[in-house]
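Re: your question from the hallway

Yes, I did run it. Sequences:
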Amino acid sequence: MIWIKAAQLAPSYPIVIQIETIATDSMADAPLPHPLGAATDDAPLYAPRKQIYPQAVKGRYRTIKWVVLAVTLGIYYFLPFIRWDRGPNAPDQAILVDLANSRFYFFFIEIWPQEVYYITGLLVLAALTLFLMNAVAGRVWCGYLCPQTVWTDLFYAVERWVEGDRRERMRHDRGKLTLSVLGRKSLKHFIWLVIAWWTGGAWVLYFADAPTLVYELATFQASFHAYLWIGILTFTTYTLAGFMREQVCTYMCPWPRIQAALTDEYALNVTYRYDRGEPRGSVKKNEALKLQGLPAGDCIDCNQCVAVCPTGVDIRKGLQLDCIQCGLCMDACDNVMDKIGRPQGLIAYDTDMNVQARIEGRPEVRRIVRPRTLFYAGLIALVGAVMIASLAMRQNLYLSVMHDRNPLFVRLSDGSIRNGFTIRIANKNLDARRYALTIEGLAEAKVDVVGGEIDQRGRAIVAVGPDQTLEARVLVTDTASTDADSTALRFVLTDLATGDTASTIDHFKAP
Amino acid sequence: MAHDNKEQVDAITGVTTTGHSWDDIQELNNPLPRWWLWTFYASIAWAIAYCIAYPAWPLVSSYTKGALGWQSREAVVADLDALKQQRSGMTTKLADASLEEIRRDPEMFAFARAQGKAAFGDNCAPCHGAGGAGAKGYPNLNDDDWLWGGSLVQIEHTIRHGARSTSDQGHSGTMPAFGRDGMLKREEISHAADYVRSLSGLSTDKSTNLSAGAKVFAENCAACHGDKGQGNLELGAPNLSDKIWLFGSDKATIVEGLMNGRGGVMPTWHGRLDDTTIKALTLYVHSLGGDQRP
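Structure:
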């Protein structure tokens, strides 16, 4: 495992160096911060996991997290049940991934497989939004919105509700396994499994008609694949949120590494304001120091910030990879500051640059609007505009033409020249349509659709079923002898019902 | 790089380093998390179990068969059977329907064309070309000139029984070797060749005697190719008055045909391809340029 120190990655970035001074000043007698104790000759090959027992906490950020949890899980679990009327030939589920018919429905949008670039656009938007969030306030995604965080938070809530808070859980795990403890633990795992099962259950609802599938699942009539996917997601949810937890963020997820490379000194982060907190000491000791005119900080070293942390880090050591910036340490510290009558915000959204500025007596700099954020916001607006424009201009009729490769042309018995084409018509309407196929560019030429018909005006007519594509062979015969060995040809397809047209260009080849 | 064996401890994190330094960046020697190590061991166990369960190791003349007895060949056969099973509904429909019925039904027609295209690539393309464009002596199937007829029924008969093939029901009739067998003199052949070219409006030698050629044609060729050289589907005698030439329209090629005769072979596919495939092939070939002219 390679961890390269932030200071070495970006020498101008001062965080780690400053932390070091604090650490050596105030924690000379404390054990080394790293839990692994690997500084000896016989270092173990593996690191035993440090069990984390986050303590319950109340406060502003905890409330935000509860709201985000309720909203995001609500969306996830109930979205498939929202109906959206599309008419008789299409499903009425607002969001549906119809794998059997290769269609993706999203409210008023219906996406065909060849339009997967909309998904690409959506992913680009998601990435840029992530970058923007990061540029404004660091790991907002990790702390509040990431499914791993949300589900782990929910699982911790269940654990706390069934087994009790931090101290009780620690006692349970250290003490004997009594019947009561066993009962509580069993209940906890049972609830976890139910939540995990629901997670997998909601997932499959996005791939079939939700009410029907719920009925089929309940009566054991659903397909094997549905149960298999529920099983897989039950397993992953139970394992990742119940057991792996912060290990996912620390070891598995690539985002902390990418995030560290993308961030800059202006990005707000959950920051321990060591300019105000250090040197730390008990309330009484620091009051006494202050009276003597000696330096004394506001941090009373109560360790509450560490106790509530779901990843077990000490925020006072500064920015670190394991910290998901969920903000719970801010709540814990604010509560303590309230109790001892000191101002809130010893741990707050701030930058190390500002901490340093206050130490040196320079003014603070807060720049949310800066080239980086403007750039990301601009890119988001641009990609969003392109997406909206392309969706608005999306046609329900699509025509593609492919010229025969072999032979390029064929001479008929009367000497005229014929070219063969394969056309593909996509009718994205939800009813059957009839289309007239005509060509521009060759005045004398005749168009035939193999298997099609000819109307009274001599146009080739093709019928395409609702929400379907049709591949047909088209023969273009030019009776006039063209001199050019290649003539540009426009195929025009006209919807007989609406008059909508789609056209594409190909060539007519002659000897 | 100078390297002493002393433990080097990183001052900030208190973790030993590997002792390597690149541009003053050092590598911390953090141990792996325990679960990661378990995953690693589990992967090794899985690999060993996999080698036992499935074919894995090459031996001198064989290989380890694996405890489960899985074989890629059997898997392919199973896949093909599944495919056949999946297509069986459509295949049955195709087998029961007449050619005309299939052509009128868009769904069946599309299926038959797709299946026919694949069968064409496997069986017909070597002579007729991937797109049915033909070659010298091998008819172009995209044009409107059909030696044995371009209707669905005629095309099916030609595919099924062939021409000058081993089948009793196949088309027969050959272009005799007028020159080699001494039926016509060189001079007569030259006149006939010029006359044939004139039938479709091609230029002729100024010195040639077209009326002599016409006489030779009427006495020797018209029986099969018709009075005006319009051809005969029954005998597979090409139309000599159109713009399409199976072997070529220059005089030397025509003389060569008259001297040595012609007789390209289309094999019989009856018995080699099943009925449904022959039907599909018929519809595919017909869609290339069939039915345009009698």
